[in-house]
Amino acid sequence: MLKLGKLTDYAIVVMTALAAEPDNSQSAHELARLTHVAEPTVGKVLKLLGKSGLVSASRGASGGYRLSRDPAAISIADVVRAMEGPIGLTECSAHGSDCAIEPSCGVRGNWRLISEAIREALGAVTLEQMAAPMTSMPAPRPALAAESPLRFHPSA
Q1: For 99-118, how does the pLDDT look when each residue is reduced to its tens digit (9 = 90+)?
Q2: Cα–Cα distance between 153 and 143 in angstroms, integer?
Q3: The pTM is what?
Q4: Is 98 domain-assigned?
Q5: pLDDT exceeding 70 applies to what percent of the chain?
Q6: What is the residue range of 36's domain?
Q7: The domain that contains 16 carries what CATH number?
Q8: pLDDT for 49-98, tens place per residue?
Q9: Is there a domain that residue 153 lies in?
Q10: Cβ contact 4:80 at 8 Å
Q11: How far is CA 92 from CA 104, 105, 109, 121, 156, in A?
Q12: Which of 71, 90, 93, 103 is 20 to 30 Å from 61 at the Cα level?
């Protein structure tokens, strides 16, 4: 099974809570209460998101955390990269690797194609969309095989 790490999942939950009220700063304690994520975990996530420039912190009575950019300008791919690093299903599809068969690998090009499709899909969803009520989101339309952006080329 392919899945994101738990901290990345929590980061998206926390970022979505911030996106729901982008004009308000929220404390780690308040974010933990809103998201039901443990406060130490929220703190760890916010620290990593702050290092990546996705959130900013301010001190004082009205301080707290807020998004560094408009929620419509932050994609899920931005959050995943901040938490996990480059997006790719295999090591060589995200960046150079020390795989012994990389120079002669017959499927490397296809893994890169698949990884790019995933990056594009994650990049197409914003925090603004994630924060919108689920009832206002249109139901996903299943893609037809003829519409699929994936084209496999064995020689790639």
Answers
A1: 788 778 888 788 889 989 99
A2: 20
A3: 0.79
A4: yes
A5: 81
A6: 6-147
A7: 1.10.10.10
A8: 999 999 999 887 778 999 999 999 999 999 999 999 988 887 777 666 67
A9: no
A10: yes
A11: 12, 10, 10, 20, 14
A12: 71
Is the Cβ–Cβ distance between 49 and 11 less than 8 Å?
Answer: yes
In a domain, residue 154? The reply is no
Q: Which residue is associated with the tokens 């339309």?
A: 141
Angle formed by the axes of helices 76-84 and 39-51, nearest 10° = 100
pLDDT number for residue 138: 56
Question: How many structural domains is the chain composed of?
Answer: 1
What is the rounded CA–CA span in Å between residue 141 and residue 88?
A: 25
Q: Residue 45 has which token pair?
A: 């996530």
Q: Is residue 110 part of a domain?
A: yes
From CA 27, how far away is CA 33, in angstroms rounded? 10
Round to whole Å and give the CA distance between 42 and 57. Answer: 13
Average confidence score pLDDT of the chain = 84
Q: Tokens for 103, please give them.
A: 């120079």
One-character DSSP codes across 44-85: HHHHHHHHTTSEEEE-STT-EEEESS-GGG-BHHHHHHHHHS
Determine the length of the chain.
Answer: 156
- Return the number of other C-beta atoms located less than 10 Å from residue 27's C-beta: 15
Q: 16: burial class by Cβ within 10 Å (0-12, 13-18, 19+)?
A: buried
